[in-house]
Automatic annotation (TrEMBL):
One of its GO terms (molecular function) is metal ion binding. Pfam families: Fer4_7 (PF12838). It comes from the Bacteria. Coiled coil: none annotated. It comes from Microvirga lotononidis. Residues 1-30 form the 4Fe-4S ferredoxin-type domain. Keywords: 4Fe-4S, Electron transport, Iron, Iron-sulfur, Metal-binding, Transport. Its cofactor is [4Fe-4S] cluster. This is Dissimilatory sulfite reductase (Desulfoviridin), alpha/beta subunit.
Length: 64
């Protein structure tokens, strides 16, 4: 399973891009998206998902 970004809630701050250890988040068009093939849910690197932990809007980075 991977995480996804709820586009309607995203403020486009970009904080998640810099925190993602697998480089799975990128800006496409006018929204940030998480590549499900790259997303590891931070399981190998952290105890919590870094995108969700740095996002200023709760429940914007969620399990897909």
């Amino acid at each position: 399973m991977a995480f996804k970004i709820i586009a309607s809630q995203c403020t486009q701050c970009g904080a998640c891009v810099f925190e993602c250890p697998s480089g799975a988040i990128k800006f496409e068009g006018e929204i940030y998206v998480i590549d499900p093939d790259k997303c590891t849910e931070c399981k190998e690197a952290f105890d919590t998902q870094q995108c969700a932990s740095v996002c200023p809007v709760p429940k914007t980075c969620v399990p897909d």
